[in-house]
Amino acid sequence: MTLPIFPTCKYNLRYLIIIALVSLNYQFSLAQDERRTFASAYHDKSAYASIKGLLDTALSHDDSYAAGIYYQQIGDVFFKEGVLPQALEYYFKANSSFLARTFTVEYADNLNKIGKVYYKTSRLNSAMQTFRKAVVVSDKVNYPRGTAEADKYIAQIFEKMGHLDSAHYYLELALRAYQKLHNKQQVAFTYSKIGGIYEDELKFSEALPYFFKALDLYNDSKSLEGKAALLNNIGDVYRKMYNYKTALTYTKQAEQLALQLKDFQQISSAHRDLAKTFEMTGHFDSAYYYSEKARSAYAKSFNIDTDKKLNLLQTLFDVEQKNKEISRLEKDQFNNRVFIFLIVLVGLLLAISGYSVMSKQRLKSKNESIIHENIRENIELELNNNQLQETNLKAQLELQSKELSSHVLLIIQKNQFLEVLKNKVISIIKDDKRDSRRELKHLIATIDENTNQDKNWEDFRAIYENVHHQFFDKLIDYEESLTATDLRFLALLKMNLQGAELATMLGISQNSLRTVRYRVKKKLKLTEQDNLSQFIQQF
């Protein structure tokens, strides 16, 4: 292969070439990771517009999963053209949509895409965290391709950080995964990255076998994607091994393939390496020639990328403006319809209200007189009902009070009778007539039992409850330890009976009555100064 070598110039040209190479190397390094091959079916402006339409349809149907897919695809369009902030924005929106359905393969892919944006923008810590999360999600959903993709980029992050051993480890993980998946393209890429690590470690003899394994896979698959960069890497290794002839051969192959693909970035890279090789062989005129060509190719690549970014951003702006205009027109149309409707409605309402006012005026006086008359009659009827109800209640209360008084009087009379009878029997017992003494004692016991356990108590209690509602329930709620005798005592006390009457009703002596009064006050937690009669009136 004939290479363009120009006659030797003066040595001061050497310094100019070195300055040009240093400048070019600096500019090229800034864009080294700006673009990588991206396989998709999108076509920049038309792709964004068409996907945006599909996205709007999915959102209008509340289809979060489809919306997530379209968010991700729009992010891919921006990523492909290097508009990374917008790409990241749409990837984040896709994440929110995918998370609505727990972990999925699409979510794992999206995490890898977010990690790539972080990697491209040198946010290595964020990239590392995102790729590690992608590994976890990919393992959970049994998605080895997602795991391999994340491992591959984790390795590249370690490489940038200078941790070459860790980078090599993760590249081996990715390599084994891609081999199981029979993905020759990614196996070749991983081989080339492992070779690159050995090259960084200056282990050129160990790097070349991996580069040639990758080259064999590219040749077998007849794939040109990534092949130009690989050929350039091989030429670069041979140059570093001072095998300039072989280095020029592979670098020229890289140049020809890049020209065929019209990949100006790879063209610039090949020309840059050719310039370095010629400079090292002392052909400074050729080195200067290729350094200028590298600068020109890089400028063209930069301009093309810039134009694509601007066109895409212009499309984004145009679509947003179009959507805003459509929204404005739809809003105006809606407002016009609402305005017309309101005019018609107001007219109808005015007509109806006019007729209604006239009708209401005619009926108003009549209705008011009828209403006032009905109100007056209702008030009179309610007053009569209240008076009648009050009269009935008074009559019932008076009747029940009479019944209660009669019942109490009956009990008092009965107990007095029993007391007289008891005294007579006692006087009989004191006689010496021993033959009737046992029967008389039995009679006294029967009288005592009849006196102390009033079998008419339930009737008395029912009548009492009608006059004093829930009296016994309130007492039990206040103090649960009150006995039946206590309740009888308190009920009679509420009727304002005197001591003698209370003792007669309960069938006990005055001393026993004082004992009952003391015990009840103690249960009710009253002091000696507290008046039990006044206290019981609150129940």
Task: Please characterize this protein's 3D structure.
The termini are far apart. Helices cover 82% and strands 0% of the residues. It has 539 residues and is mostly helical. Helix 4 runs antiparallel to helix 5, helix 11 packs antiparallel against helix 12 (244-261) and helix 13 (264-280) packs across helix 14. It is built from 21 helices and no strands. It has helices spanning 12-31, 44-60, 64-80, 84-98, 105-120, 124-140, 144-161, 164-180, 184-200, 204-221, 227-240, 244-261, 264-280, 284-429, 437-452, 457-467, 471-478, 484-494, 499-506, 510-523, 532-536. Among the domains are: 42-320, Tetratricopeptide repeat domain (Serine Threonine Protein Phosphatase 5, Tetratricopeptide repeat); 468-539, Winged helix-like DNA-binding domain superfamily/Winged helix DNA-binding domain (Arc Repressor Mutant, subunit A, Orthogonal Bundle), CATH 1.10.10.10. Mean pLDDT is 78; it is low at 1-43.
Distance between the termini: 123 Å
Assigned CATH architecture of one domain: Alpha Horseshoe
Which superfamily, in CATH terms, is the homologous superfamily of one domain? Tetratricopeptide repeat domain
Instruction: Describe the sheet with the most strands.
Output: none
